[in-house]
Design a protein that fits this description.
Layout lengths: L5 E5 L4 H15 L4 E7 L5 H13 L5 E5 L19 H15 L3 E5 L3 H4 L1 H17 L16 E6 L2 H10 L21 E4 L4 H9 L2 H6 L1 H8 L2 H8 L1 E8 L9
Parallel strand pairs: 1-2, 1-4, 2-3, 4-5
Antiparallel strand pairs: 5-7, 6-7
């Protein structure tokens, strides 16, 4: 089997670059047919335009946009519901249509906690997993195209130890007292992917999200780190792997 075809499902513009940008650049270079679906910010909005620029840097064609609103930013999709308030079945159906059209070997999304608990990330995770299951079930959405069985799911995550380091190097605020810290224990990580050879490309893609670079305190502080520390934070990406057929599909 050659390079797998891969569909990334993300909540917001910039997530694709920040959490999986090195992976995208690496697999594109290896010959994978790669698509990115983003759940929020409608086509024509400023952040969708930034997303298009970021994906061009990573080697991917124009993004697929579901066009739901980013929670807290109604201007992201003035005519649409917020992602966390959408009709779940409608959103699943949309993703099913794209899965059956693109026929990816692998779907990549977030872990169950959305990496760090963002409600839109958690919703994107739930939608992606439901859509992968539904896409393989021919009686569901029969007019959305022939059924397609994705071979493996990869769930973007961060080890707990790295989350602890991020909180010290980039100020994200202390967790509430008594809260379980975000992240995945090292022993549960299935794939630790070295993307250091693509880290400059990844950082350029993150920088294409100019509005977030100006707005987000965490990204501002990330930009202020010296290059060595920033590259150390960005040079590895981590995944949980869930095979849906025997043998699954290797991401790299």
């Amino acid at each position: 089997m050659g390079a797998p075809s891969v569909l990334f499902v993300h909540a917001h513009p910039d997530d694709e670059s920040l959490w999986t940008g090195g992976t995208i650049a690496r697999i594109v270079e290896a010959g994978s047919t790669t698509s990115v679906l983003t759940c929020t910010w409608a086509s024509g909005t400023p952040r969708h335009t930034e997303l298009t620029s970021a994906l061009r840097i990573l080697g991917v064609d124009a993004p697929i946009a579901l066009g739901y609103a980013d929670g807290g930013f109604p201007e992201s999709a003035p005519q649409s519901a917020a992602l966390c308030e959408c009709r779940f079945d409608d959103a699943v159906r949309q993703i099913v249509e794209h899965i059956r059209r693109l026929r990816p070997d692998i779907v990549v999304t977030y872990d169950a906690y959305g990496i760090y608990g963002h409600p839109d990330h958690i919703q994107a995770h739930r939608l992606a997993l439901a859509a992968v299951e539904a896409a393989a079930c021919a009686p569901l959405y029969p007019d959305a195209g022939p059924a397609w069985q994705t071979r493996s799911l990869y769930l973007s995550t961060v080890p707990t130890r790295v989350m602890h380091r991020i909180r010290h190097q980039v100020t994200t605020g202390p967790p509430p007292e008594g809260a379980v810290p975000p992240g995945t224990p090292d022993a549960a990580i299935d794939l630790e992917l070295d993307v250091s050879a693509w880290v400059e490309q990844k950082w350029s893609a993150i920088g294409a999200h100019r509005s977030e670079m100006d707005r987000s305190p965490a990204l501002v502080e990330l930009a202020e780190l010296d290059v060595a520390r920033r590259n150390a934070l960005l040079g590895t990406e981590w995944y949980l792997r869930r095979d849906l057929v025997v043998g699954g599909a290797d991401l790299v």
